[in-house]
Specification:
By secondary structure, the chain is of the alpha+beta class. It folds into two domains: about 20-145, Uridine Diphospho-n-acetylenolpyruvylglucosamine Reductase, domain 3 (2-Layer Sandwich); about 150-233, Uridine Diphospho-n-acetylenolpyruvylglucosamine Reductase, domain 1 (Alpha-Beta Complex). The chain contains five helices and eleven strands. The chain has helices at about 40-50, 65-70, 130-145, 165-170, 200-220, and strands at about 20-25, 25-35, 50, 70-75, 75, 80-90, 95-100, 115-125, 180, 185, 195. A hairpin with a 2-residue loop joins strand 9 and strand 10 (about 185). The longest helix has 19 residues, at about 200-220. The protein is globular and about 55 Å long. It binds flavin-adenine dinucleotide. Flavin-adenine dinucleotide (FAD) binds near residues 34 and 71. Its EC number is 1.3.1.98. One of its GO terms (biological process) is peptidoglycan biosynthetic process.
Length: about 230
């Protein structure tokens, strides 16, 4: 978000916080409001022995945000689990997108139309032994060990280019030594930028551009943003 005032409306999804389990014969699904915190849904899944969501371990934010950005880890994502997503358009039109209407792409919203507000979604899950769920959660937690957990970051800055890891490219061309104002490339993982207390949005943006330039000059690869910038940059 740009420094200073943003000339835009902001919608809070906090009130969309319903979380219901539906059981139908052997099938089980969870209907979640867009404002439900990802960690709350994961905790419910663990408590009720529902499998399929362990990939959400350590991903902050809401279900709406995670669906919008097609959040995932190690190749796992919502795509095989989502039965439908309900949205409201700018004009107030309600639409329920069925599984077949959604076109999932790496870290992109599942539709190519103008921005839509996600209100809720239905996830088809499966019963799983709690021991197994815990094992899977530990597995995903382990994958995050190399990340700057606890630091102020917005998650991965760049998408991984096909067949490559953005963090590795950034590290190889020395980006870990870069900083602008209070924004620094993380020493733990070069695809994260840490705010050391006083970074302005402009500092973070300028630092990302420096990183992008280095990778392009060194490898000829233009890294695409995974994070989104709002306002004037
Ligand atoms: C420490 C850290 C680790 C992370 N690890 C991962 C990871 O392993 N894998 C991964 O994929 N991502 C990861 N992320 C990114 C994470 O997925 C996003 O930050 C998160 O999903 C954003 O959710 P939010 O609710 O905070 O949305 P916001 O940050 O508020 O918004 C993000 C975007 O989603 C849109 N949005 C939010 N809610 C809705 C809604 N209801 N309807 C329509 N659009 C909406 C916003 O308009 C905005 O464009 C990580 C982030 C952090 C900070």
């Amino acid at each position: 978000m740009q420094d200073g005032l943003l000339n835009a409306g902001v919608i809070s999804s906090a009130a969309l916080d319903s979380l219901d389990i539906r059981e139908d014969g052997g099938a089980v699904s969870v209907e979640a409001g867009a404002g439900v915190q990802v960690r709350k849904m994961l905790a419910l899944a663990l408590e009720r022995g529902l499998g399929g969501l362990a990939f959400l371990t350590g991903i902050p934010g809401t279900i709406g945000g995670a669906l919008y950005g097609n959040a995932g880890a190690a190749g796992e994502s919502f795509a095989p689990l989502v039965e439908w997503i309900e949205t409201v358009s700018h004009a107030g039109e309600l639409r329920r997108w069925q599984r077949g209407d959604l076109s999932w792409q790496y870290r992109e919203s599942p539709w190519r139309e103008p921005p839509l507000l996600i209100t809720k979604a239905l996830f088809r899950l499966f019963y799983e032994q709690k021991n197994n769920i815990i094992k899977n959660i530990r597995h995903f937690a382990e994958l995050k060990k190399g990340q700057p957990i606890g630091a102020k970051t917005a998650g991965c800055v760049f998408k991984n280019p096909p067949g490559e890891a953005a963090g590795r490219l950034l590290e190889q061309c020395g980006c870990k030594e870069l900083s602008v104002g209070g924004a620094r490339v993380s020493q733990r993982h070069a695809n994260f930028i840490e705010n050391h207390g006083c970074a302005r949005a402009e500092d973070i943006y300028n630092l990302t551009r420096m990183c992008q330039k280095r990778v392009y000059e060194e490898f000829g690869i233009k890294l695409a943003y995974e994070i989104k910038f709002f306002g004037a940059f």
